[in-house]
């Protein structure tokens, strides 16, 4: 690049809110940083160029090993996926950074270029969306069970009253109206919750590095509010477990497993979630001491069936659990799901997911 061309590039980069940098791998020297770096980190460019270690000093302690490992992979030209991690500025402000490396492929040019941006606002937005999604799932469950049951009972009672006084046309007319209203509401609920509308699953993945133990804690919190009589407990062999998952899909996995546990336990039963880091992944178990899964249905639990097909096989209510969806979501993460269950002795569901998203 000619000197004049570089001046134009530098001018454009300095007007940008993103950080642009060039790193010489042989000299271990940062050749270029634009002004956005100062605005985001509050560090002095000249000092960082002289002592690149200053960059690692501001990385959040919980993210340090992760970033160091990824940087080593970049030096080997084997990793160019975006990194998302936290930094702690001099004023103790915590920020999320999204960083993408672009290694120069020409062997005679030992450079790594990159772009970084302040991702804090987006991360906060994602957390809010997760809270909204958890609330939505809770509301759907309330509509599905806490409302559908009473409406169905109202329809049945109206029919009984009409049959007891068939000669009272006014009563017959009013109870008929009640039955019609109840039926319309039941049809609306069925339409809203129709599992067949989930016939396809969005297979696109948006992996984010999240803290798993805290994510599960949030999901359990929503269920504690909607099921105050049930006993939810959580333990973890590791205080914190970081993994690259699609947060929206991961919350659906937790939600489906908790939902399954609530449907086959009473208020006196317990639902317990445990997590632990294993090898290159983490293992999540959801255990309950409810009625268990009937043995004849166990081979079919993760199979997709329509409501009519399930009715013919005698397990219509199990299609509402959406466990085939759960398995599909786990598969998208490159994970595995399995279970153990015994009649009247409860069930244990196991989910193992890799800590890092494998690149194709």
From TrEMBL:
Enzyme category, top tier: transferase
All residue ranges annotated as the Histidine kinase domain in the record: 142-357
Substrates-to-products reaction catalysed: ATP + protein L-histidine = ADP + protein N-phospho-L-histidine
Keyword list, A-Z: Kinase, Phosphoprotein, Transferase
Transmembrane segments: none
Domain PAS: 19-78
PANTHER family documented for this protein: PAC DOMAIN-CONTAINING PROTEIN, PHYTOCHROME-LIKE PROTEIN CPH1
A Pfam family reported for this protein in Swiss-Prot or TrEMBL: HATPase_c
EC number: 2.7.13.3
SMART domains: HATPase_c (SM00387), PAS (SM00091)
Taxonomy, superkingdom: Bacteria
Stored InterPro entries: HATPase_C_sf, HATPase_dom, His_kinase_dom, HisK_dim/P_dom, HisK_dim/P_sf, PAS, PAS-like_dom_sf, PAS_fold_3
Protein name: histidine kinase
Gene3D superfamilies: 1.10.287.130, Histidine kinase-like ATPase, C-terminal domain, PAS domain
GO molecular function: phosphorelay sensor kinase activity
């Amino acid at each position: 690049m000619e000197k004049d061309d570089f001046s134009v590039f530098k001018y454009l980069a300095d007007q940008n809110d993103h950080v642009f940098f060039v790193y010489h791998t042989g000299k271990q020297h940062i050749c270029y940083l634009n002004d956005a770096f100062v605005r985001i980190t509050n560090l002095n460019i000249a000092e960082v160029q002289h002592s690149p270690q200053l960059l690692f000093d501001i990385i959040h302690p919980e993210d340090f090993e992760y970033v160091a490992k990824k940087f080593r992979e970049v030096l080997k030209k084997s990793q160019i996926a975006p990194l998302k991690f936290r930094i702690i500025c001099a004023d103790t402000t915590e920020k999320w950074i999204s960083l993408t490396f672009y290694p120069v492929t020409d062997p005679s040019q030992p450079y790594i270029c990159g772009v970084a941006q302040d991702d804090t606002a987006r991360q906060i937005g994602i957390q809010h969306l997760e809270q909204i999604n958890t609330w939505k799932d809770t509301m759907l469950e309330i509509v599905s069970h806490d409302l559908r049951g009473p409406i169905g009972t109202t329809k049945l009672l109206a029919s009984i009253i009409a049959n007891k006084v068939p000669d009272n046309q006014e009563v017959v007319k009013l109870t008929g109206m009640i039955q019609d209203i109840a039926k319309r509401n039941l049809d609306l609920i069925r339409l809203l919750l129709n599992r067949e509308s989930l016939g396809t699953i969005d297979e696109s993945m948006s992996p984010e590095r999240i803290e798993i133990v805290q994510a599960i804690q949030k999901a359990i919190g929503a269920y504690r509010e909607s099921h105050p009589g049930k006993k939810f407990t959580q333990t973890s062999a590791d205080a914190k477990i970081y993994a690259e998952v699609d947060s929206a899909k991961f919350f659906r996995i937790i939600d489906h497993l908790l939902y399954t546990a609530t449907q086959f336990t009473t208020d006196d039963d317990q639902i317990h979630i445990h997590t632990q880091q294993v090898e290159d992944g983490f293992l999540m178990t959801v255990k309950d001491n409810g009625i268990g899964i009937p043995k004849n249905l166990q081979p079919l639990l993760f199979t997709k069936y329509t409501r009519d097909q399930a009715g013919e096989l005698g397990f219509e209510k199990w299609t509402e659990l959406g466990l085939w969806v759960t398995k599909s979501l786990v598969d998208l993460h490159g994970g595995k799901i399995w279970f153990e269950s015994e009649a009247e002795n409860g069930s244990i569901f196991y989910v193992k997911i890799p800590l890092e998203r494998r690149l194709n």
